[in-house]
């Protein structure tokens, strides 16, 4: 439909727009309750756009924009989530190839992925983040590469999330992102504001939609001979929710403006992701409560929003880690 990678330059097959165009797509999908990894496609594309050489960009980005390659980013491992320096997957140089061993978990788009941006240790002799690199792996007919069955999640049931396994997988050394090994952690830190901003967009769209559908529901739903909206508790609750959603919208728009201007820093993006997702979950929970028993029924949109939104406080860096980042900056 031409809406993949709306903020990637046209010369690489994208829409040629800015993050504002990406935000429109993400908002509409969030309001429709659709989760299929569109934002992950853009996140992976921006890693290639930022750190790939010309050959890599012209090889991968047009195919991603056409939907021929589904992108995934594989960072988390069974023993390392937000603690990225703790990853154990390795890539050993062997001639013109890297030999990759290890596993990744919680990989969005993992089942369908044709292109994986993979975080690995290329130098196990140095501690922490200094030996990390990003290698792009094309998965089609790749020996030693295995995908686990999609994980059963609390929410986002239409979004495939898998474990990935690498057993002596060979990838061309030319698939390294960046000019040299050891740049992976700094690359991830630089790109996380983009990913966290996409989460913030979905959070604001979700809380606004939750308020809208709940307002309509309490107008129609009768209790004790009058609409639920006629009760002061209902009006006060929705007044608080609508106000917080409006504040969130203004903060989000400010962050988008700063990002487009190249001025969105890591700390502000952490604030946005942390605060907006906390507001989102609180507002959706309040709105579910106003639906009464029907709010707990899976057929109602508010129930699906409640289960789907919970993960926003976890991925792209848990909110606890983000508060640590903000605290370290004081």
List the helices and strands and how they pair.
Blueprint: H1 19-32, H2 38-51, H3 54-65, E1 71-74, E2 90-94, E3 97-108, E4 115-121, E5 132-138, E6 145-147, E7 161-172, H4 184-220, E8 222-223, E9 226-227, H5 232-260, H6 266-290, H7 301-309, H8 319-328
Parallel strand pairs: 1-4
Antiparallel strand pairs: 2-3, 3-7, 4-5, 6-7, 8-9
What does this structure look like?
The protein has 330 residues and is an alpha+beta fold. The chain folds into three domains: 69 residues, Acyl-CoA dehydrogenase/oxidase, N-terminal domain (Butyryl-Coa Dehydrogenase, subunit A, domain 1), CATH 1.10.540; 112 residues, Butyryl-CoA Dehydrogenase, subunit A, domain 2, CATH 2.40.110; 143 residues, Butyryl-CoA Dehydrogenase, subunit A, domain 3 (Up-down Bundle). Helix content is 45%, strand content 16%. The chain has eight helices and nine strands. Strand 8 and strand 9 form a beta hairpin. Helix 4 runs antiparallel to helix 5 and helix 4 packs parallel to helix 6. The protein starts with 18 loop residues before the first helix and ends with a helix. The mean pLDDT is 95.
Query: For the record, what CATH class of the largest domain applies?
Result: Mainly Alpha
Number of strands: 9
Q: Give the CATH topology of the largest domain.
A: Butyryl-CoA Dehydrogenase, subunit A, domain 3
Mean pLDDT equals 95
Give the percentage of residues in beta strands.
Answer: 15-25%
Distance between the termini: 45 Å
Order of helices and strands: HHHEEEEEEEHEEHHHH
Number of domain units: 3
Query: Which structural class matches the secondary elements?
Result: alpha+beta
Spans of 5+ residues with little confidence (pLDDT < 50)?
Answer: none
Principal-axes geometry comes out as elongated
């Amino acid at each position: 439909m031409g809406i993949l990678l709306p903020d990637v330059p046209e010369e690489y097959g994208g829409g040629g727009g800015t993050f504002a165009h990406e935000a429109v797509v993400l908002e509409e999908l969030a309001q429709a309750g659709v989760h299929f990894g569109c934002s992950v496609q853009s996140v992976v594309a921006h890693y290639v756009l930022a750190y790939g050489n010309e050959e890599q960009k012209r090889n991968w980005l047009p195919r991603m924009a056409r939907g021929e390659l589904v992108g995934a980013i594989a960072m988390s491992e069974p023993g390392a989530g937000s603690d990225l320096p703790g990853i154990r997957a390795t890539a050993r140089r062997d001639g013109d190839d890297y030999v990759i061993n290890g596993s990744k978990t919680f990989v969005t788009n993992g089942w369908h992925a044709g292109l994986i941006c993979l975080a690995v240790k290329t130098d196990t002799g140095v501690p922490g983040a200094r030996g990390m690199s990003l290698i792009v792996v094309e998965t089609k007919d790749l020996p030693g590469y295995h995908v686990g069955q999609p994980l059963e999640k609390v929410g986002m049931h239409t979004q495939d999330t898998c474990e990935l396994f690498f057993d002596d997988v060979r990838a061309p050394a030319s698939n390294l992102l960046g000019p040299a090994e050891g740049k992976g952690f700094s690359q991830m830190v630089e790109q996380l504001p983009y990913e966290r901003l996409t989460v913030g967009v979905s959070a604001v769209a979700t809380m606004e939609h939750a308020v809208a559908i709940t307002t309509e529901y309490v107008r129609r739903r009768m209790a004790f001979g009058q609409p639920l909206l006629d009760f002061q508790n209902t009006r006060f609750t929705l007044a608080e929710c609508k106000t917080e959603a409006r504040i969130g919208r203004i903060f989000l728009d400010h962050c988008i403006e700063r990002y487009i201007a190249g001025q969105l820093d890591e700390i502000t993006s952490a604030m946005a992701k942390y605060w907006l997702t906390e507001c989102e979950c609180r507002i959706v929970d309040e709105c579910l409560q106003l639906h009464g028993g029907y709010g707990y029924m899976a057929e109602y949109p508010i129930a699906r929003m409640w289960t789907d939104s919970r993960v926003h406080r976890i991925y792209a860096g848990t909110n606890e880690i983000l508060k640590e980042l903000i605290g370290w900056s004081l």
